[in-house]
Amino acid sequence: MYIENSINDKYIKTLNLGCFPKNVLQFQDSQDYFQQLIFIDYQLQLLISNEFKNDQLLSLAYFENNTTLYQAKKEKLLQLINYHNSINLNYKSSIKSFKENFYNLTLQCHLLYLNNHNVQDLIKILSSFNIIPNDNEIENNISEFEFIQFLTIKYNVLLSNCYSSFNSNYQLQIYFDYLEKFQKPFSKSQIISNFWFEILFKNLSAHLTKKNTIQLSFDNHLRNLPFFKNKFATINYSNFLLRPENLNFVNKSFKNDYSNYLLIDVEENMHSKSFQFPNASESSSNNQINDFINNLYESLSYVPFNLSILKPQLSKKFLIDCTKKTFQSKIILSNLIYTLIDLGEYDEAFQCFITYIDYLVKGEKLKNGYIEDILSIIDTFSTCIIYFNPLKSFKNNNSKFKNIDLNFINDTFTKNFIPNLQRYLDELSKLIDLTYDDENYAGDKNPLSFLYKKYNLNILQTDHSQFIELISKAWFSIGNYYYYLSIYESINLKSMEFNVSQILLNYKNSLIINSTGNVLYLFNYALVLANVGNLKFSLKLCKFILKKYPESFKTWNLLVLILTSLNNDNNDTSIPLKFNDNILDGQLSQQQSPPPQQQQQKMRDPEKFINKALNIAGLYIMKYIQKDIKLTLESKYEILQLKLTQMAVLESVHGHQYMMDYLSEVFVLYHELFDVQLNSNSTNINHSSARQFGSNDKWSHRPSFIDPKIQTNQQQSKKDPASSQPIGDIDSVKSIKKSVGTGNTVDKLRRLSKISRKDSFKKNEILTPPPSAAQPVQQPKQTLSRKTSRQDNPIATTANNKTVERKILQEIWLWTSRVFLKNGLMEECEQCIIEAETIYEPNIKTFTSLGYLTSKSRKFLSLQEFERSLEIFNKSNKFNNQFDYGLNLLGLCKLFLVDDNLSNSLFISEKDMNCAIIRLKNLLELYSLTWPFGYNNSEVWFYLSKIYEYIDDKILLTSSLWKCIELEDKRPVRQFEICDSSIV
To answer: Where is this region: Disordered (predicted)?
Structure first.
């Protein structure tokens, strides 16, 4: 039974979390001594944050060279010291508790230390106080015990620093004595204790390394330290030294030596008989094992390469062994969940998490609602929700769950995981008076209000602090789950709108807590704002992000696309018509083109920003090359997407023919980014050409579908009217070929697709400059020749065959095929598709591309390609790439509703056509409920309007047309979703 009856108990909990009460400023007028001390502490932390570079131990002596600055800071500090003295005089005769005296002592000495007070006097003041309380001096209260832990470590740090100027040996001895007696590790919720513990470790490391003049060895240095026998202290300190910011303190062998030490220690613990499953009346075994686990895994969680220090398989074995020696240990189960996720054993982790929640509920009932270590609980919930979210666990149709059904996962999320996490976040908000949007306050309705207003003035921790990151991560995890629901689980428009509103709410809550510390949260919120049509707010947020994170290439991409969308919405600006990618009726999308000079001037912002982004990308690549550091695949892919956006911007400004001159730059950039040499011409030696794929199979289930092979034999003499081009079109294509020189274009690109990264770098072609109308294309001087036969040097698709890089190159070839298709260069388009099938296996993307290519010339083959893609989509689970699915579905709509004609129809009867159109209607309506992919796609609503017109539904026709016009008015040159597209 835990007794928590102090009037200040809530405030103590708040202080333990590194925060202050919301009404802390009112404590200045309080009659309670402890509340007055809290007010002084708050003012002290404000002063340190604003005047002392947020350094707890930076005294006024640091500023003595600047007299004006020194005097200003000293005056503010003296005001606080005098106020503190007056409070003590007012309460001199009152009886004070141990915690009040201890709190007052640390505040007094901290103030005097900053004021550069005589250290001898400070030592006397500190030494005169007995920091070990008597049994009757503290209450049986967890919060108060944790508060005393915080005061104790702060006391030792202050006392040690007082000795630094004249007795460094005794300074070290204070640290050693504290660490030798360190037996109770701090929980995750003891934020302020952990903060001062890190300060202690930093000071200790500075002394042991003689201010970075030597590096520590685990075997030669740590083993000889007085506290080495205390495993809690040794493990915690070793993990601290292995954090990225502290690696300069240790030598190269430290990690391996420590890993060996840890391996032996864990093995000994597993075989130890000193810990057995406790009896009903015993809890000491539970506590000792829990403390060891908490100390090891909590401190190890801050080490990026922790999996190489303690192998996941050994960790799993150890934690399972610990569960046999403890009773319903939440600490052990929580760390077991993390370990199982690291091992990819999602089924076991999911069931463990459900059990973990049961333990929490039972524990809270036994303790009358008391929640132990609430931050650890919130962290476990948010981690599990992020990893179990189907967006991650079912990504690319590869389920990480072997036996658990998706419906069960969704049901558990909705009824258990999300409500419980929200409940714990609400409890935390009550505990430290966290504030979010107020519905009655107009300013909070601004989507970016967190940039102009600090919601929680009682939280002085930085945005990179553990406390801030943990809470913002929890809100983001909830919003991210609603993002999944908006894409895959919206059953109607109302549910979709609710899901989108929850995304906005939870993402914003995340940023209210952490407005600058995490670029992922900022970018995702900006992307959602863009997708809901708040373009100007999204643009402002993108600019804010780029000021702090200029190397966020996804944000650069989104910024440029928003600018093109805003230009599209400007009545004074006209943009050249798009071709195959914008397949709306001419009457709906027709615009009057302005003079070229005006047109170029209006589009300067997108060009300017995309060029700036690519310049930064070039510097970014150079920096990593000079440091001999490999770029992540994600960064490379984001830079490549920037280049494709640049091509789209050039097309919108100068026309689709202009972009033809710069196709080679995309391939050159690919090989500058991806270190891969493709010596093979094929990854599949048995497939036939693009036009022949599937000709022996029947993919459509419709009775009117005629096998293309039979159709070809039956209608050899019958020319498809849709395949014949008008004379003007033929002349246009010839003029394009002549002006662009496409006769050898595909061959050139094919050679570029085989160039080695090494050869490219020899010519210093790190990143080609952004093209302009007056800038010639720079062709690479060294290329690797290849044969045109698709079956030369066949190789199998293995992990060593750079599968991801091949997928990306295939995507580039398919993008190039669409460029040729826009220009009416059908033959070159087909060659690109063939090359895409060659570089990587034929798939939905290539089938769809072939469907678009043959939509007019060979409609039955086109139908086959679209149908076979839909067949694959339907056979796989629903976690398909929604962009690819939409592209395929719209291709089928184009084939049925635009390219088909009565003289040579795909349909054998009117009933057959009606069935096909109703099928399309159902597919389109379902796709329109996938936000943002289908719902924000103007072509989806355009084709729906044509279908509604066909079935004579005037109400739906009107609404779909207005939706189409609304989206078309704000249409960017590429969809916003490509900014966050994962590697293919």
So the answer is: 684-734, 760-795
Using an 8 Å Cβ cutoff, are 72 and 66 in contact? no
Please give the DSSP secondary-structure letter assigned to residue 134: -
In three-state secondary structure terms, 216 is strand
How big is the chain, counted in residues?
984
**Share of residues in the chain with pLDDT > 90 (%):** 69
Check residue 403 and report its DSSP letter. Answer: S
Residue 395 phi, psi dihedral angles, 5° rounding: -60, 135
499 with 444: CB under 8 angstroms? no
C-alpha dihedral, 715 to 718 to 720 to 725, nearest 10°: 140
- Reported for 548-553, long-range contacts at CB under 8 A and 24+ positions apart, including other chains, are 548/516, 548/519, 549/519, 549/522, 550/616, 551/616, 551/620, 552/519, 552/523, 553/613, 553/617, 553/635, 553/638, 553/639, 553/641, 553/642
Q: With contact defined as beta carbons under 8 Å apart, do 488 and 935 qualify?
A: no
Return the closest-CA partner of residue 353 out of 397, 395, 404, 306: 404
**Residues 515, 538: Cα–Cα separation, whole Å:** 15
Identify the sign of the CA torsion 625, 630, 631, 633: positive
Q: How far apart are CA 737 and CA 71, in angstroms?
A: 76
More confident residue, 394 or 140: 394
pLDDT at 467 (0 to 100): 95
Residue recorded with tokens 């060891």: 292
Tokens representing 37 are 């001390």
Radius of gyration for the alpha carbons in the chain, expressed in angstroms and rounded: 33
Q: Please tell me the distance from the alpha carbon of residue 917 to that of residue 926, in angstroms, as a whole number.
A: 14
Longest CA–CA separation in the chain, Å? 113
Which residue has 């274009």 as its token pair? 745
Question: CA-to-CA distance for 503 and 531, rounded, in angstroms?
Answer: 12
CA torsion, ordered 419, 420, 426, 430, to nearest 10 deg: 150
This prediction's pTM: 0.87
Asked if 343 contacts 334 with a C-beta cutoff of 8 angstroms, the reply is: no
Structure confidence at residue 864 as a pLDDT band (50, 70, 90): very high
CA 909-912-917 angle, to 5 degrees, is: 125
Q: CA-CA distance, 969 to 354, in Å (whole number)? A: 48
* 216 DSSP β-pair partners: 250
Distance CA 803, CA 860 (A): 32
Contacts of 816 (CB under 8 A, 6+ apart): 663, 666, 749, 832
- Is residue 523 within 8 A of residue 552, CB to CB? The reply is yes
Nearest to 870 by CA among 808, 927, 937: 927
pLDDT tens profile 457-502: 999 999 999 999 999 999 999 999 999 999 999 999 999 999 999 9
Name all contacts of 223-231 with Cβ < 8 Å and 24+ positions apart: 225/176, 226/176, 226/180, 227/176, 227/179, 227/180, 227/182, 230/179, 230/180, 230/181, 230/182, 230/183, 231/265, 231/292
| C-alpha dihedral (223, 228, 231, 235), degrees to nearest 10 | -60
DSSP single-letter state for residue 973: S
Residue 371, classified by CB atoms within 10 Å of its CB into exposed (0-12), middle (13-18) or buried (19+), is middle
Helix/strand/coil (H/E/C) assignment for every residue in 538-555 = HHHHHHHHHHHCCCCHHH
Residue of 424, 553, 569, 415 whose CA lies nearest to 481: 415
